[in-house]
Amino acid sequence: MALLIRNGRIITATDDYVADIWCEDQVITRIGRNLDSPAGATVIDAAGKYVFPGFVDPHVHIYLPFMGTYAKDTYETASKAALVGGTTTLIEMICPSRQEEPLAAFELWKGKADGKSACDFTFHMGVTRYDSAAESQLKEIVRAGLSSFKVFLAYKGAFGVDDTELYHTLKLAKSLGVIVTAHCENAELVAELQKQLLADGKTGPEYHEPSRPEAVEAEGVHHLMTFAQMHDAHCYIVHTSCEPAVRAALAAKQRGVKVWIETLIQYLLLDKTYAERPDFEGSKFVMSPPLRDKRNQRFLWDNLASGAISTVATDHAPFDFKGQKEMGRGDFTKIPNGIPSLEDRINMLYTHGVNTGRLDLNRLVRAGSTAAAKIFGLFPRKGTIAVGSDADLVVYDPAYRGTVSVRTQTMAVDYNPFEGMTIEGRPSVVTVRGQVAVKDGRFVGDPKRGQYLKREPNHF
Ligand code: URP
Ligand code: ZN
Ligand code: ZN
Fold first, then answer.
1. If pLDDT is split at 50, 70 and 90, which confidence band does 408 have?
2. pTM score
3. Tens of pLDDT along 298-332?
4. 38 secondary structure, DSSP code
5. What's CA 406's distance to the chain center, in Å?
6. 59 alpha carbon to ligand 1 midpoint, in Å?
7. Which of 83, 85, 114, 348 is most buried per CB count within 10 Å?
8. Which DSSP symbol is given to 423?
9. How far apart are CA 309 and CA 61, in angstroms?
């Protein structure tokens, strides 16, 4: 199966030029001007369009047992939604309970994806308990092709680890050449603030943010950085939402801690007033760390443009309003945490980043694809357009105009947090290893094409 994409403006994290791309046997085999198109090849005219490398979302939840329920998407729905939005590689969090064995969890999560994903995928291995049994299983999981762990400093009693466990996880990660991704919030502070707010009769979704204020997140980041420094471990802070948290990470980086920073499309565009919407609508905007005061957004955009923040992810965690978010009526601590955004990340980043002048095209690619591929050991197979790279390509139409709506989305959840917002551009064609998966906003590909991506440790 051969594919020729003609006359597109090719954008990578570093380059910007017009050329044709020839793909065979799932990879890019030639890039040049006026390439011949032999009979039988699929030919796509990309004149007037950009050609981006497939985007990589380094933080998604698909199978997620959490807060007494399960996230709504499956690989069948989530992988198609990702592709429609231009994301061709997913990195999902494996989030076992403390009682589950890590190896069994790895097999369970992988089993949910194998043969059911339309796009390629890999995982961060959640370390939610640390003892000698967990340690030997984590080593086996790394041998099976995972090279990143995930720890939660929040959610004590569910996924959260204590400080002894954190210490040993970072030590093991360093010895194995694995990077540790971390959710940073001080769990004890959250628990006390939640108790106080509920005792004061403050039960609505608008109190979620005050129960986990910016200082609580910044403390979590500082805490992780102190522990990471002890072992010279490589860390990646997921979903930083605010200036104090980013500053805590940057201060650690200044003193030599090996840290990378992620933010989310939600924090760049939405703010805490969304969680204050009446009639419990605010629950749709409850996630952790919470949506913040709008003043943080300028700081996040500026640090994204400078590269101080490496990646924009989604932390896609879809819970229906009906029956799921509603579990928290009368008690905001019971609202399942999470905001879906897998499908919309790149169109939103393009519309509000590139089209407003906050990000140039190279930085869009870096933040949405290349940086994650490099940090997590997928580069140059993923994250760029080069001979030998997988032919995951996004032909992007900057002339498209549309409106985001739950009525037209592919994600299997009953609302869209960006409902009614306009997009100025969208993928017109998306390919997965050389095969067309999306045409003009519709999935048209092979629903089982996705492959598990093995990653090597020590890739930094
Ligand atoms: O609110 C969130 N972020 N839900 C998903 C789980 C997590 O913390 O990443
Ligand atoms: Zn988290
Ligand atoms: Zn998450």
1. very high
2. 0.98
3. 999 999 999 999 999 999 999 999 999 999 999 99
4. -
5. 20
6. 10
7. 83
8. E
9. 21
